[in-house]
Design a protein that fits this description.
The chain is an alpha/beta fold. 46% of the residues lie in helices and 13% in strands.
């Protein structure tokens, strides 16, 4: 059983194209396991505050690739917002999964990221579409109950992963904007929980709030400073 799971999580070897993401990786995996193939990515591993969010997307390879589709980190906020709406409207299916700051502190960021990815994949099935396999950005895929292939820099190579990266990023940014209203003074809408100078100063001035990740060193240091 363990050997079978290890085989199902192999890394996908694929030549990197120069013209942005395409469906080559999806075709390679579909040749082994059939369709549909989901792309999975996350947003928010590094911030000091807020959840980690993952998304799973299944696109139709028979449709034109949405103009500008790419790794979310290479896009401006207006470009991401425009593509988010297109993906939601045109995807065969998509799902989003979230792991909370409390879960991050309890099980660590790596496991929480995997948990969010599992939840995103489960959301596809809850929506009535079960993928036959998954492509996951990076080299550390979660353990799913379907064959999984890791694709390094997949958000710039696979259309499905690129779509998932946009869904995850926009969803998380919107969550952080809403959380900014609940926890004013930290600038969450501005920096999305990442470790900026403004955020560091707010931590020292206000101390951590409930959505901070207390196992992250800057947050734990600020808490110790408040307690001293």
């Amino acid at each position: 059983m363990v050997r079978a799971l290890q085989r199902s999580q192999a890394r996908l070897d694929l030549e990197e194209g120069q013209g942005g993401p395409d469906f080559a990786a999806e075709a390679q995996v579909a040749a082994l396991y059939g369709r549909p193939v989901a792309g999975i990515d996350e947003a928010g591993r590094g911030p000091w505050a807020g959840p980690v969010v993952a998304a799973a997307a299944i696109l139709d390879p028979g449709r034109a690739i949405p103009e500008g589709l790419n790794d979310s980190k290479k896009l401006t906020e207006p470009q991401r917002e425009r593509l988010f709406d297109i993906i939601v409207a045109e995807a065969i299916a998509y799902g989003v999964g979230v792991a909370t700051p409390a879960e991050i502190d309890q099980i660590n960021i790596r496991r929480a990221t995997h948990l969010a990815m599992v939840r995103a994949t489960e959301a596809l099935a809850l929506g009535g579409v079960r993928p036959t396999a998954a492509l996951v950005d990076g080299d550390d895929p979660p353990l799913l109950d379907i064959p999984t292939r890791a694709l390094v820099r997949g958000d710039g190579r696979s259309c499905s992963i690129a779509a998932a990266s946009i869904l995850a990023k926009v969803t998380r940014d919107r969550l952080m904007a809403a959380l900014d209203a609940e926890h004013p003074g930290y600038g969450f809408a501005r920096h999305k929980g990442y470790g900026t100078a403004f955020h560091a100063q707010a931590l020292l001035r206000l101390g951590p709030c409930p959505i901070h990740r207390f196992t992250f060193a800057p947050v734990s240091a600020a808490q110790r400073e408040r307690d001293s």
